[in-house]
Amino acid sequence: MRFLRIPLLAGLVAALALGASACGGDDDEAAADTTAAAAAGPTITLGYSAWPGWFPLKVAEEKGFFEKAGVDVKLRFFTDYIASIDAFTAGQIDGNTQTLNDTMAGVAAGQKAAIVVNTDFSAGNDAIIVDESIDTIEDLKGKTIAAEAGVVDHFLLLQGLESVGLSEDDIEFRGVLTDAAAAGFAGGEFDGVGVFAPFTTEALKRPGSKVLFSSADFPGSISDHIVLSSDLVAERPEDVQKIVDAWYETLAYIEANPEETTAIMAEQAGVTPAEYATYAEGTQILDAAAALEAFADSSEPTSLPNTARKINPFLVSSGLTREEADLTGLFSDSFTKAAVDASGGE
After folding, report:
1. How far, in Å, CA of 154 to CA of 156, rounded?
2. Which of 33, 105, 248, 261 is the most exposed place for a label (fewest CB within 10 A)?
């Protein structure tokens, strides 16, 4: 689970909190936009946290795209990803941005949730970093490798081991919180570590360290999403469609206005635009057509149902769930399909 994708280094958390309060939701330009449709229905509260694939929501908020679509959405930013998961599980928010792993863990525990947007695939921001004694995945055998047990980087490690016929039994696995794992590796405590950006930066401070493989080498293994409660999806499908449409309008705006929007997202992240750009490079934001393709059940590595079938036994074997998640109704692709149809298939 990026479950525990505690998103930024401790030194950035305070900056994130300041960024969240400093970047308010009032955007005079959006408020004055007479094309905004009248929103119907109660406010929908959507949580998100610090990950490049989710910061476009800040752009949507500042530019008023939800209002323009005619849906009343209140965004709630969490500096702590775990807290966003807890809030969604407890019904304190109507939806959240989270990984496929985390979503399935909640469903396995009885939560009713549906993925309505495939925001992105990690494309390098999650990595297995090793010391100078390791040059190949086969070299991991017998080595001490740390990662947060049950998180997406643990899952990535297992994918790499499996690719060369190894398993977790072939290494000395240490389950350590992500920040401590990065710091411990940097200090020489482990032979290798599985972490996500920006903890990768901390891990790579160790002299001679290098990325052995990353999520870029295993396309589709780590996916991120906008997830809503199943009840909301069933009861207010028109408003859900407006949320999805606003998301893709936001992506189009970002593409057309990269400098402006990078500044918005970087401010929310508490980093400079240049620093933000380095994190964004490791995230494959999906347009509507690519997101729809990811919903399809196939043997492709980017097929979410295909990946989910691999994640289910992982969640059980790692002790995160007692039983596998029921995938029925989890992938709600109709809203993305409507967005693709409305754009002429693009």
Report:
1. 5
2. 33
